[in-house]
Amino acid sequence: MRLGSGTFATCCVAIEVLGIAVFLRGFFPAPVRSSARAEHGAEPPAPEPSAGASSNWTTLPSPLFSKVVIVLIDALRDDFVFGSKGVKFMPYTTYLVEKGASHSFVAEAKPPTVTMPRIKALMTGSLPGFVDVVRNLNSPALLEDSVIRQAKTAGKRIIFYGDETWVKLFPKHFVEYDGTTSFFVSDYTEVDNNVTRHLDKVLKRGDWDMLILHYLGLDHIGHISGPNSPLIGHKLSEMDSVLMKIHTSLQSKERETPLPNLLVLCGDHGMSETGSHGASSMEEVNTPLILISSAFERKPGDIRHPKHVQQTDVAATLAIALGLRIPKDSVGSLLFPVVEGRPIREQLRFLHLNTVQLSKLLQENVPSYEKDPGFEQFKMSERLHGNWIRLYLEEKHSEVLFNLGSKVLRQYLAALKTLSLSLSTQVAQYDMYSMMVGTVVVLEVLTLLLLSVPQALHRKAELEVPLSSPGFSLLFYLVILVLSALHVIVCTSAESSCYFCGLSWLAAGGVMVLASALLCMVVSVLTNMLVGGNASRKNPVHPSSRWSELDLLILLGTAGHVLSLGASSFVEEEHQTWYFLVNTLCLALSQETYRNCFLGDDSEPPCGLRVEQGLDGATAAWQDGPACDALERDKGHRSPSASQVLRGHEKWMVLASPWLILACCRLLRSLNQTGVQWAHRPDLGHWLTSSDHKAELSVLAAISLLVVFVLVQRGCSSVSKAALALGLLGVYCYRAAIGSVRFPWRPDSKDISKGIIEARFVYVFVLGILFTGTKDLLKSQVIAADFQLKTVGLWEIHSGLVLLAALLFRPHNLPVLAFGLLIQTLMTKFIWKPLRHDAAEITVMHYWFGQAFFYFQGNSNNIATVDISAGFVGLDTYVEIPAVLLTAFGTYAGPVLWASHLVHFLSSETRSSSALSHACFCYALICSIPVSTYIVLVTSLRYHLFIWSVFSPKLLYEGMHLLITAAVCVFFTAMDQTRLTQS
Amino acid sequence: MKDTDIKRLLYTHLLCIFSIILSVFIPSLFLENFSILETHLTWLCICSGFVTAVNLVLYLAVKPNTSSKRSSLSHKVTRFLKCCVYFLMSCFSFHVIFVLYGAPLIELALETFLFAVILSTFTTVPCLCLLGPNLKAWLRVFSRNGVSSIWENSLQMTTISSFVGAWLGALPIPLDWERPWQVWPISCTLGATFGYVAGLVISPLWIYWNRKQLTYKNN
C-alpha cells in the first residue's frame, strides 16, 4: 500500500499517543489503599493487648477535646509564622507559640504542593497520587476514609467556610458551609471576608463540634506579587486577628464544657520565592502546624526551631483527639506531644491503635510484610504492652510501672516511625508490565519512522507501507502467539495490580495485534532496505551530497537535547537548552548569510584543499546539497541564487536579521525567568505585573497588540482585517475590565468585573476569522488551482489562532506574541526565502523556535507554571471541556502558532509540491524522538530521588506535547490532502 | 621543505601551550592566594597577556607570511594601531554575543568582558598576527577550501576549536553540582582554554597525518 509521507507520519503519531497513554497509566501508580472499603466501620477497634489477664478496655478511647477549630491558611509558609515576618505581623500567634499552651511543628507537605492533594493528605493521612494534580480543579468527591467521614458517622456536627474544593471533596458532610471560589486570583480581600463574616455568629452559637476555615487570600497574594510583597504583611495581620478572635472565644467557652478545646493552625503548602507552588523546594514544602489548647502545658522559652513532622500526621492526630477511628489509608503517625499530658495507659492505648492501623495497611500493601523492620518492632512493642497491662492490672508499683511504661512508649514511637516511613515509600510502586507494553509500541513506531526517513523525504514524498508483505503472515501470527502467551503468564503471576491485565481481552488483544503488526512492518522495511541498499550501492547517485553545517547543528542539537533529558537539572532548566540552541541556530544562520553575501559569487575556491572531512563542522560550503534526497531538486536553483536576489538595502536586512532575532530572543528571555535555579531572579514580567507599574503595562500591552495587528493584517482579506482589529481591541477591553490594564481616560477605575462580555466578544471574532479561513480553504479546493485563496485561508487560520492567543495570554506576555510574529516575518522575508532552505530544515527551525517560545511564555517543566486562569476567560463557571481546551492552547500557544506558520509558509512557497508532506513527516519525527527517549530514560530512572518532583511533571508535559503534535499533524495532512485533490 | 614547516609549526604551538601552563604557575610565585578558580579574573588577565606576548614574539621571530613589502615605519604603526582597534572590536562584539546568549547585562559585566578578552586572545590575536588587519583574508581563510598554507590551516583549526570549547563550556552551568567552576564565566573560559590547547595539539598532528593529501597553491 502506498501512503503519502504526511499521512504515514500522522498515523504513526496517533499510534504513539496510544502507547504513551498506556505507559502513563502504568507509570503513575495507584496510591496505597486499604482494601477493606466495603464493610466500612464494621470491624471493632483493636482491643488493648494483654498477656494472660483480660483487659476490659475494648472500645475506642473517648475524645480528648470537645471542640476542634481548624484554621487552614492557603500557602502559609513556615517562616511566615516562625520567621521574622511572624514576629512582625502575627504578634498574637507568636505569643501563643512562645509562651502559650501550644505545640508547634513544621509539617512537611509532599509534592505535588497543590491545594487539593494537600487537603486530601491532611484529612485522610494518605499520600495522594501524582495524577491528582491534573484533577486538581475538578475534584471529585473523596471516596476514601477520612477524618471528616469518621466524624460524620460519629455524629459530630461539622461547619465549613472557605475554599469550595472542600465542599466538592466532602459533599453532604457539613451541616453548614459557605464555599468561596479560587476563581479570581486577583481578588484577595473579598475571598477572605466571605469566611470571616460568619465567625462571630458561629463562635457564639456553639452547636457544633468541628469548625474548618480555609482562607485563600494569602495564596492569591502570592500568585499575584510573590512572598515579599507588602500585601503579605497585611494579610498575616488579618489572619492573626482572626486567630485571636477564635482563641479568646474558645477560651471563654471552655468554662461551660468539661473538656478543653483544640485550635489547629496550619497551611496546606508553602510558597516559592516567585509566589507559586507545586514543586518540592523547601519554601513550598514546609508549612507551620500549631496546635493550641489549654490542655497542653505552658512552656516558657523561645522555640525558633520547631520539630519537623509530616503533613499526613495531622489526620491520625485529629482522629485521636476527637475519639475517632484513624482513617484506614492514613500513613501518618500520631503527634505524640498532643497526648503527653494523659495517663500513661491512655498514651499507650493511643499509640497501639495507631500502630495496629499502620501495620494493617502494611499487610495489605506489602506481600513480605513480616520481614519489615517496622512490623517486627510493632510485634515486639505489642508484647511488651501486654506485659505492662498485666502488671498494671495486678499491682500498682508506680515507679516500676512508670519506667517500664516509658520503655514501651519509646518502642511504640520507634515502630510508628519505621512503619510510617516504609508505607510512604510504598507509594512508588510501578506497574512495569503496562509501562513495557507502552514503551514497546512507542519504540516500534519510532524505529519505523527512522527507517522510513530516506523514502519519506524522497522527492515523491510517498512510501511503500508493507501491510501485506509475504513474510508478514507467518511472522505476524507467531509474534501474536508469543505475546498472548506472555500476557497470560505475566497476568497470572503478577502480585501487584496491573492496569494492562485489568483491560478486557479485546482491548489487550488489539494492542498486541498492533504491536506485532508494527514489529513485522519494521522487519520488512529493514529487509527491503538491506536488499535495496545492495542495489543502490552499485550506482551511487549523489556523490557530492554532504551535510551543511546547519544540518549538522540541527542533528547535534536534537541529539544533545534528547540526551540532556536524562539529567534532572537539564530537565528543570530545559528552557536554557532551547535558548542556547536557538541562539546558536541564529549565529549559524548569520554566518550563512555572510557567506552568501560576500563569497556568494566565487563558487570556485581559490586554492584546493582536498581533504577536509575533519573540518566539516565548521566550514561547510553553502552550495553543498543537504542531507536528504529530497533536496536534490532544490539544488538546481540554489546555486545561482543568493547575490542576484540580494540587492541594496535588502542585502543589509538579510545580514542584520539574525542579529535582530537574537536581540528579540534576549529581550523575551528576560521577560519571564523560569526554571528552578534562577527563577528567583528579578524579571521584567514581575516588574510589569506589580501594581505600581500598571501604566507601563498598559502601554506595553497596547503597543504589542498594535504590532500584532500590523504584522498579521497584511495577509488577510479585508473582512478578517476588520474582524482582527475589533478582536484585538476587544482583548484590550477585556484586560481593562478585569483590571490588569487601564484606559488613559479612566486612570483609576475601581470596578472590576469578570469581563465575560468582552471576552465573548473576542471569541466571536476568533470564530469568525477561523470560519472565514476554513471557507476560503474549502473554496480553494472546489475552484481548483486558486492558489492565492488557499494561502489567504491558511493565513486567516493562523491569525485567528494569534487572536485567541492574544486573548488568553496575560498582558505582560503580549510582547511574546508580538516578538514571535516579528521573528516569523523576519525569518520568512530575509532568511528562508533568500537562502532557500529546504522543507526539512525549515520544519526543524520552526520546531526549535516553537519550543523556545513555549518557555518564553513563562512555562517550565513544572506543573505550577501552567496558567490555569486562561481556562476561565469568558466563562462564568468552571466548564470542563472548554476550560481544558483553552488552558492547553494557552500553554502550548508558542509551538502551535509556529506550527501553523509553518503550514502557511510552506504552502505559500510554490517551489516544491511535496514540501508539506516532508514537513509533516519531519515534524512528527522530531517531536517523537524526545518523547520516546524520555520514556525509556524515565523507566530506567524510576528510583531517582527527583522522580516525582522533576521527571514526572516533565513526562506529563511530554505526553501533552505529543497529543498537540498529533493534532498539528492531522492539520498538516488535511492541508496536504487539499493539495493532492487539486493537482 | 614541508616537514621543516610542520616542525616549526609544532614548536610554535608547543610554545603557546607552554605559555598557558606558565600563566598557571608563575603568578603563584609572586601573588599570594593565587588560584585559577578563586582569583579567576587575575588569571584571565595574566593568561591573555602571556598568550598575546608569545604570539607577538613568534610572529616577529618566525614570520610565517612574508607579505610586508612596504615596511615604512608609519605603515607599521598604522598597521599596529589597526590591529589594536580590531582586537578591541572583537572583544566588544564577543561581549555582545555573550549577552545575547543570556549572560547578565549589568551584573558580572567585568567577568563577561574578560571572557570576551580571553576568547579574542585565543582567536583574534593569532588571526591578526598571521593575516594582519585584512578582513578579506579572514573571510578567505574561514571559508571552505580557502586556506593557502599550513599556518592558515592550523589557525583555522585552533580558532574553531576555541569557539567550540567555549560553547561546550557553557553546558555544565545549569547542573546542580554546586561546584566553584560552574560559576559564570569560569566554565566557559576553561572550555575555551582547553579548546585552544586541543586545537594547538591536534592541528600539527592532523597536518602531519594528512601531509600527502594536502596541496596548496603556493607550494
Automatic annotation (TrEMBL), chain A:
One Pfam family linked to the record: PIGO_PIGG
Topology class, membrane: Multi-pass membrane protein
Residue stretches making up the GPI ethanolamine phosphate transferase 2 C-terminal domain: 649-966
Transmembrane residue ranges: 432-451, 472-490, 502-531, 695-712, 724-743, 755-772, 839-858, 878-899, 920-943, 955-975
Keyword Transferase: yes
Keywords: Endoplasmic reticulum, Glycoprotein, GPI-anchor biosynthesis, Membrane, Transferase, Transmembrane, Transmembrane helix
Name of the molecule in the record: Phosphatidylinositol glycan anchor biosynthesis class G (EMM blood group)
Transmembrane keyword on record: yes
Organism, as annotated: Papio anubis (Olive baboon)
Family, similarity comment: Belongs to the PIGG/PIGN/PIGO family. PIGG subfamily.
Gene this chain is encoded by: PIGG
Pathway stated in the Swiss-Prot or TrEMBL entry: Glycolipid biosynthesis; glycosylphosphatidylinositol-anchor biosynthesis
One MF term in the entry's GO annotations: CP2 mannose-ethanolamine phosphotransferase activity
One annotated Gene Ontology cellular component of this protein: endoplasmic reticulum membrane
Record-level GO BP terms: GPI anchor biosynthetic process
Compartment(s): Endoplasmic reticulum membrane
From TrEMBL, chain B:
A GO CC term assigned to this protein in UniProt: endoplasmic reticulum membrane
InterPro entries: GPI_biosynthesis_protein_Pig-F
Protein known as: Phosphatidylinositol glycan anchor biosynthesis class F
Biological process, per Gene Ontology: GPI anchor biosynthetic process
Pathway the protein takes part in: Glycolipid biosynthesis; glycosylphosphatidylinositol-anchor biosynthesis
Predominant place of localization: endoplasmic reticulum
Keywords noted in UniProt: Endoplasmic reticulum, GPI-anchor biosynthesis, Membrane, Transmembrane, Transmembrane helix
Domain of life according to the entry: Eukaryota
Subcellular compartments: Endoplasmic reticulum membrane
Claim: Transcription is one of the keywords in the record: no
Record field: transmembrane: 9-29, 41-62, 83-106, 112-133, 154-175, 181-209
Topology class, membrane: Multi-pass membrane protein
